[in-house]
Amino acid sequence: MKAVRIHEFGGPEVLKIEEVPEPTIRPGDVLIQTEAAGVNYADVMTRIGMYPIRGLPITPGLEVAGRIVKAGDAVTDFKAGDRVVAMLNAGGYAERVAAPAAAVFSVPDSLSAVQAAALPVNYLTALHMLREFGRLAPGESVLIQAAASGVGTAAIQLARLLGARIFATASAEDKLALARELGAHETINYTTHDFAEIVKAGTGGRGVDLILECVGGDVFDKSLQCLAPLGRLITYGVAGGVPGTILTPLLLFGNLSVIGFHLGRYYQTRPNREGMQEILRLVAAGRIRPIISATFPLREVAKAHDHLSERKTRGKVLLVP
């Protein structure tokens, strides 16, 4: 079977399509014929050597959707032919993938494989940041940076359901239009306007209660200035490649919190199925929807990474083997 392999860190050219053996499954695993695989910024960070991994070579990819080819002897909830979506530690950029049954979920008939594969990483990240880590309450305000990204489009929809007032930033008018369509109340083009000034003005100088930030550098630093007293900032990425600076007096006198979130590490310490099951219920009920930016065949994986890293995304990027 074909899979994408990384043997050295670098640009998109290090993503190599290779023939590899089919994965073997353990008694508690299922083997999935991949119909769609999510592409995440974590994959880009892995490729360039800025993400913690056990070593090279590696096949990136944290989520896939498709049909089960084979189920291990200890698996009772799934059988060959079932349509599923799976969360992975790695390995999704491949024609077939082995996954623990505990990390596999049934896909409703109303959802395509592409739509299903767009859900796990982005929507679970948004859900846990907003609710468990951010403690967002009805009537509170939230600033969502990179609002047209996969996580950003998920976070806007979920924050709307949680009853928040939503400020959203993006770099182009069509991205801002998408944010408004999904439920953002105030949108800001950060390339032409000072988002901190607009947030402060829009909240009467108070600031927002919660910020979701994934860029780092100056964006992180300016975001801290947008927090209301007792506000929380959640950092879940460093897409700009430069970490932010935390000024402890600012935290001290504002009673502010800076919280880190990493979905994979969170699920290693608190494995559960409830979050994904809730996301699937919300999609089935039509209350949220996956936003697809672009799909690429496996052979064009380098183009998929370029699409993501060049900030062309309006939602999720996926590979279709």
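Above is the first protein from milestone M3; the second protein from the same milestone is given next.
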Amino acid sequence: MKKHSLAVAAVSLLNGCTLAPSVNVLGAYFPGWLFCIVAGVSLTVGVHMIQSKLNLGPWLAPAALTYPVLTTLFSLVVWLIFFQN
């Protein structure tokens, strides 16, 4: 019985093993997460430029915590918008 339950648990973990979304760029395929990270970093740089011009530095403090969180947030939002099934 123990072997059976272990096999069922192992097979249920394989449910998410599908092909990763790839993007064709001039004949070369790149993983979708790479574009999401680039978009997340770009959007975070945009937020930094806007807050610098508006002198809103204290609103995004501490920067060492805020900017990685913003990058992650933007990357995940881009993933949900462009790579949802």
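Note on the second protein: The longest strand covers residues 22-25.
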